[in-house]
Amino acid sequence: MKEYAFDEIERRQQERWEKAGLFLADDHDDTRPRYYALEMFPYPSGRIHMGHVRNYSIGDVIARYMRMKGFNVLHPMGWDAFGMPAENAAIKHGTHPAKWTYENIEYMRKELKRMGLSYDWKREFATCDPEYYRWEQLFFIEMYEKGLVYRKKSKVNWCETCQTVLANEQVEDGRCWRCKDEVMERELEGWFFRITAYADELLEGSYRLKGWPEKVLTMQRNWIGKSVGAEIDFPLKGHQGNIKVFTTRPDTLFGVTFLSLSPEHPLALELSKGTGQERAIQEFVEQWNRIPATERRMQREKKGVFTGAYVVHPLTGEAIPVFLANFVLMEYGTGAVMAVPAHDQRDFEFARQYGLPIKLVIRPRDKELQAEDMDAAWEGPGVLVNSGQFDGLDSVVAKEAITDELKRLGRGSPKITYRLRDWGISRQRYWGAPIPMIHCPRCGVVAVPRNALPVRLPLDAHLDKRGRSPLPSLEEFYSTKCPKCDGPARRETDTMDTFVESSWYFARFTCANDISSPLDKELAASWLPVDQYVGGIEHAILHLLYARFFTKVLRDLGYLTVDEPFSNLLTQGMVLKDGAKMSKSKGNVVDPDLMIRKYGADTVRLFILFAAPPERDLEWSDRGLEGAYRFLLRVWRLVQGHISYLREAKTDVGALEAASAASSVLRGLRQKTHQTIEKVTGDIGERFHFNTAISAVMELVNQLSDVLNNLGGVEKDITAGIDPWPVIREAVEAVILLLSPMVPHITEELWAELGHDTFICRENWPVADPQIARADTIKLAVQVNGKLRGQIEVACDASEQTVKERAIKEPNVARFVQGKTVKKVIYVPNRLVNLVVR
RNA sequence: GCCGAAGUGGCGGAAUUGGUAGACGCGCUAGAUUCAGGAUCUAGUGGGCUGUAUCGCCCGUGGGAGUUCGAAUCUCCCCUUCGGCACCA
Q: Which nucleotide has the least CA–C1' distance to A624?
C-alpha cells in the first residue's frame, strides 16, 4: 500500500494547481455568477501565526466550496505593508524598512503557499508599492478638492515611544494600542478626513448590513454615537454674549438649576473676572491641567467650582449660576451642559456635593417623587410639571415643543451631535504613504499635480536611533517648487495612517494590474461588494468603519458603484493555548510551520476547522491535531487498501440501484452517503459550521469502514452476481469530494488515484438524491407524560393512526399506561409520540 | 456602572424550527496483535440504583422559579467567565 507521504503529495499538488492556473479569477467570464471571497490581508511581520492559519483556512474553504458550486471566484491575497514594526526592526537590526518588509513578504508568501490556499496570486500587491499608494495619493487630492480633507490644529494623542500621533481609536485605556505606553496630549497641526460628513450614512447603512454580526454593528453604532437634541443659548447676565449648550433633554429645560462648563472651556477664566472667584477658578484650571490627559477621564468623583458668573434662563429669565465641572468634556457637544439635577444622574451627584437646588420637572407616570427625598435622578419619561405653559405635556412630546419655542425666540435650535470625530491621518513616521501636498510660503497649501504622482517615499533615507522620521530633514525630499507659482516650497513630510491603505485594498484586488487608473470601474462593479469577508473581531470598529467610509467616498468620486464594501462578514474567534491568547510573552505560541512540517498542511487545516465553529474561540490541542492526522490516515488507507477494486468500479445508476436492491447493508451505505452530502452542503454552504460538516463525514467514513471490514458478510447478504463496489465507490467519492475544500491535497491525490484525470477542485459539488437519502422506516420516540419510555420503528408513510397504535402497544410504554386513562396523544411526525395519561 | 456573548461529560464540542441531551473527536478502561513500548484493530465510556440485569428506573445542560403534553432551547430573578463601552450631556 502506498504510504501517506503528505509533504511530497502537498508540494506536488500545489505545483500542479499553480501550473494549471486553477485559482485565477476570470474577469471576462460572464457565464458563471461571480463570488468574491476575501480574508483580511496580513501585516508582513515575519511569519504567519495560528490566527492567520485559522483566518485563511476558513476563507479557503469558502472559496473552494463556491468554485465547486459553479461560481467564478475571486480570492486574492496581498500585504498590508506600511507600518511601525518595519521601522522598529530597521532601527534594531540596522536594516531598511523596505528590505525588512519585502523579505518578510517573500517568506510569508512561501508559508501561505505551503498551506495550499487557493489564491489568485496574479493580483498580489503590497501597499508599500508606489504603484499602490500612488492611487491613494490621487484619492487624497480628489478628496481635498471635494472638501473631504482638511488641515487643522488639534489636541492629539501623542505616543512618545512611537514618536507619532495616534487616532482616538488607537488609544486603549489611555495607552498606545501598539506599544502600550502612556499617551500624552499635544497640540499639533495635521490632516483630517471628514468621516463625520458620512456619519449619518454610516449609521443608516448599518441597519441594512444583514450579513454582519449584530455585535460588530452595535459597536459601530455606539462609536458613531448619534444624539438627537437641541442647542440652547444661555445669555450671560450683565455681559455680552452667551453660553451655548447641547442637550438631548430639552424637555427638562425648566429643571435647570446651574450650568456646567469643561475646565478647558475658552470662557472659563474670563467668566470669573471681577466676581471674586478669579483665584478659585485659576486654581481649579491649573490643577486640572496638571493631571495627565489620560487620567482626567478616569476621575469618577464629581468636582467643580463656581465661576462667579450667571446666565439667564432662556424661557424663565431666572439667573442661573455657572460652574466648572471635571466631568464635562470639551471635545463633545459645546463643552458646556445645562445641569438638571433631578433628571440627570451626574448633575444630581454634583448638586448634592455642592448643595445646589434640585428642581423636579418630569413626573413619572407610576410613582410620586419629591425633589427633597430623591436618592437618584429620574432619567425616564413622564409628564411635565413646574414647566410653565408646558405643564401636563408628555416628556417625549415636550422635547419638540420646547425646542420649537426656543427656535421661535431665537434662543436655540434642533441639533444632532455625533461622538464620531474626524479621522486624523497624519503620522510623523517614515514608513508610510507620503501625503501629496506642498506648503508654499506664498500660495499656502497646494496639492501635488496629478501628473507628478506618485510622491515616492525616498528609499535612501536614514532612520535615527530614536525612531524619528527622517523626512523633515531630508532635503532631497522636502525641498520642491510650488506647482502654482514655481517658487521654492516645502513638501508635506507627514505620512498617512496605515489604515488608509487597508480602507480600499479590497477594491484594488478587482483590477490590481491596471496601470492607468486606480480602479477599473467596470471590473470593480462586476466583483464588488465582497460577498464574504473573513477576519478578526479586533477590527470591528477601526478597519471596518474606515473601509465603509472609503467605499462611500470612492463612490462619490465616481470610482465605485456600491454603497458598502462587504455584504457578509464573518468574525472568527481567537486561537487560544491553555485558555489564553497565544503570545510570545506568555510562551504559549504554537508555530504553524513546525506543525505543517510534522503533519502536513491538510492536518493542520482539518484540526483548526474541526475544533470549533469559526466564530468561537478555539483551544489549540496537540492531541486534537494528532486525531486529525489519524483521521486523514484512515481515509488514505481506506482508499489505498482497496484501490484496484475501487478503480474498476463503475458508478452508473444501474449498478448502484441493483446493488442496493440486493443488499440492505449497501442500501444503508448509499442512504448514509446521500444524507451526508445533504448535511455537509448545509453546514458549509449555509452556516460555515465546518466542525459539524467534518464530523458528518467522519460518520460516513465509520460506516464505510464497517462495510469494508465485513465484506464477507456483505457478499453473503447479496444476491449472486451483484457487485458491491459501485456503492462503495460512490461513498468513497463523496468522502473525498466533501472533504476537498478543507483538505485539498490529500483529496486531490486520492481523486487521481481513483483514476480521474480531472482536478477535484474543478469538480462539481456533489448533489444528494433526496429519494435515496430518505429512509423507508423511521425511529420514533415514545413518551408517556413527557418521559421517554420506548422507541418504535415504523414505515415512513405510516398513518398517524398506525403510529399511535404501535406506540401504545410498545411493552415498556404499555407498562406506564396500564390502569390509567390516555387523556391526549401528541404526535409530531418524524419525531415522537407523547401519551398524556392520568 | 452600562451593553453584548457565553456557561452542556475528564476535555474540545453536537443537538439548524420547543420534540429521543451528550453526535463527532480527544482522553480513559478492557481485549486482540506485539519480546516490550508505540502504532493499529475491537468493545465500552454522563452520574446513580444488587433493581424484574443485552432490559429498566431515578438524577442530569451554572443556580432558582415559571410557561408547556414536552425546555439545553422560551420568560423572570440570581451567580460565574469572557469581550466591548466607560462621565457623550
A: B26
